[in-house]
Amino acid sequence: MSEAAFIGVDWGTSNARFALCDEDGHALDVRKGPGAAESRGRFAEAFDSAVADWRRARRDLQALVCGMAGSTLGWMEAPYLPCPADMFELADAAVKAGDGVLVVPGLCCTNPLGAPDVMRGEETQLLGAVEITGSLKNGYGLVCLPGTHTKWVALFDGAAQEFITAPTGEIFAALCDHTVLVRDQATPVVHRADDFQRGLAEARKHPGNLLHQVFQARSLRLDKQLSAEGAVSWASGLLIGADVNAALSLFATRPARAPVYVVGTPHLTSCYRSALELNGIDVMEIDGEQAAMQGLAIVFQCRNGVRG
């Protein structure tokens, strides 16, 4: 069995994932913990509670943390590295949050629309994705990290050049939970592939008309063309389709036939694959949890002289 080398923590808003990792980022033990929203004001306590037994066994275990623990609402505020940024700069810029605990910084840029943009947590997944694929180390690469706030990142030779954020997941949740457009509160949020594909098709049929199209989630349901459950999947397809269509337009200099790398949970990467393939784009899917731990492993290796 591999020897434990460090503790990796991916601290999201809603939950945290703690992993006891070997030198290469392979998880030897994994456990869940409270997210940043619940941990606010007591991050050190939440961390100690989650990893106390690991640290009792190995008092010298370093912990590397990415995500919202480094935000203004987090354990401490870590800096944003400006783009263009070599992903390995993340290791040098990690900051101390507690005894043997380092927080990885985020990234900032001026996005393709000329506005400021930031990411926190996804930068570590990017670092891991570059290592996992190998192909992102050379030339141009476009990476999509879908989620509550989906990120689209242009890389060149493994360095982040610019990115843009689409709050696709947050808008979908708001439409489902706080409007009458998509569902009644008693309607479950389920994935229906056919209705999702229909939403993707609608986004491609009338690009640039999202505000007008989204009302169809209600009108098609009232007209009995969509079931109550189907309207949820249709709306998801419409939003993801609109996200993909706009991103491909913004990053139109992407080399022809170059794949788009999609990093995240299997369900989301599959949804984005469907939308990208409708546009004739090849897709490489990468597991987000694997990418995050691989990224943290690289930070560990760089800071401890294992990697030059």
Shape: globular
Span between termini: 26 Å
Largest beta sheet: strand ordering: 3-2-1-4-8-7
Helix content: 25-40%
Taken as a percent bin, the fraction of beta residues is 25-35%
The CATH topology assignment of the largest domain is: Nucleotidyltransferase, domain 5
DSSP helical segment count: 11
Mind summarizing the main beta sheet?
6 strands, mixed
Low-pLDDT segments, ≥5 res: none
User: How big is the Rg?
Assistant: 20 Å
The CATH class label of the largest domain is: Alpha Beta
What is the H level of CATH, i.e. the homologous superfamily of the largest domain? Answer: 2-keto-3-deoxy-galactonokinase, substrate binding domain
- Structural class of the secondary elements? alpha/beta
What number is the mean pLDDT? 93
H/E element string? EEEHHEEEHEEEEHEEEHHHHHEHEH
How many beta-strand elements? 15
Topology:
Elements: E1 6-11, E2 15-21, E3 27-34, H1 36-39, H2 43-57, E4 62-67, E5 80-82, E6 85-86, H3 89-92, E7 95-98, E8 101-103, E9 106-110, E10 116-119, H4 122-133, E11 140-145, E12 150-156, E13 159-166, H5 168-178, H6 193-205, H7 210-213, H8 216-222, H9 228-250, E14 260-264, H10 266-278, E15 283-287, H11 288-303
Helix pairs in contact: 4-11, 5-9, 6-9, 8-9, 9-10
Report on this structure.
By secondary structure, the chain is of the alpha/beta class. The protein has 2 domains: 6-134 and 288-303, 2-Layer Sandwich (Nucleotidyltransferase, domain 5); 168-286, 2-Layer Sandwich (Nucleotidyltransferase, domain 5), CATH 3.30.420.310. Helices cover 40% and strands 26% of the residues. It contains 11 helices and 15 strands. It has helices spanning 36-39, 43-57, 89-92, 122-133, 168-178, 193-205, 210-213, 216-222, 228-250, 266-278, 288-303; strands at 6-11, 15-21, 27-34, 62-67, 80-82, 85-86, 95-98, 101-103, 106-110, 116-119, 140-145, 150-156, 159-166, 260-264, 283-287. The strands form 3 sheets. It has a 6-stranded mixed beta sheet with strand order 3-2-1-4-8-7, with helices on both faces. Helix 4 packs across helix 11, helix 5 (168-178) packs antiparallel against helix 9 and helix 9 (228-250) crosses helix 10 (266-278). The longest helix has 23 residues, at 228-250. The mean pLDDT is 93.
